Amino acid sequence: MDDRSVSATPTRGGGIAAFLAKAAGVVVILVLAVLIAMWGIQRYVTERLTPDPVTIARASLEGMREQNRLSAFAARYVAVVTSQQAQYGFSTEKTLIMPGTVRYEVDLGKLQQRDVAWDANTRTLSVTLPPVEIDGPQVELGAIKEYGSGGLLTTFTDAEKRLDAANRKAGLAELVRQARDATPMRLARDSTRRAVERSFAMPLRAAGVDAQVKVRFADEPTPSTERWDTSRSVEEVLGNAS
Asked: Are the beta carbons of 214 and 118 closer than 8 angstroms?
């Protein structure tokens, strides 16, 4: 009985199939690598080229602080006061008409990064300003008018000097009282608010950032309809980023 050996010879078709499978695997890996690389490049470009509202707001804040003080509203008032003096059985009075100008200012040097907050959900930049301050009044000395009854008391005593001093003191106090009235204070806040909103909104708009700017004053009550407490200040955002 002859011993015969049997050997298996691989077919050409199986070899081609294995080669094609390996080639397909390599192609898939290359495609995935290209896609990952493209995604990484796109993300890098997006992060580098997309305007950052926080960075823009920070630059605007620094620009505002360099202005030191902002005066966006001024008003002219006229005080009319009368003082009387009585002595030795005689009396006299004098009326003073004193015009003066008052400027309403905000000390921008007091602004801090925590006063500017960016809410990414509503795309709102919230700015809290220091209270409005009154500068003046600047009395128009050339426009002052005085009227008095004169008499013996002003001739033989210093009553007229005391009347003038009392009238000027009362006139200044009256100008300040008028300047602090609710209506001019509201007008001053509104004018300042619009000026600051433009200062922050224009750089954002120029950079293509769709955002709204809301400005309030530190001494104003926070409206219940606004979500000021949910915003993150520029200081917090920059602190987390670092």
From this structure: no
According to DSSP, the residues that pair with 71 across neighbouring strands are 105
Kindly give the parts of the chain with pLDDT less than 70: 1-51, 86-91, 149-159, 223-242
What is the C-alpha separation between 188 and 115, in angstroms, rounded? Answer: 20
For 162-220, give the DSSP string: HHHHHHHHHHHHHHHHHHTSHHHHHHHHHHHHHHHHHHHHHHHHHTT---EEEEEETTS
Q: What does the block give as tokens for 214?
A: 């809301």
CA-based Rg of the chain, rounded to a whole angstrom? 39
Burial 70-99 (b: 16+ CB within 10 A, else e): bbbbbbebebebebebeeeeeebbbebebb
Q: Given this model, what pLDDT does residue 206 score?
A: 84
**What is the tens place of the pLDDT at every residue in 65-83?**
887 888 889 999 999 998 8
Question: What are the tokens at 38?
Answer: 């493209």
Model-level pTM greater than 0.90? no
Helices (H), the chain: 12-49, 53-66, 152-156, 159-179, 182-206, 234-241
Cα 36–chain centre separation: 42
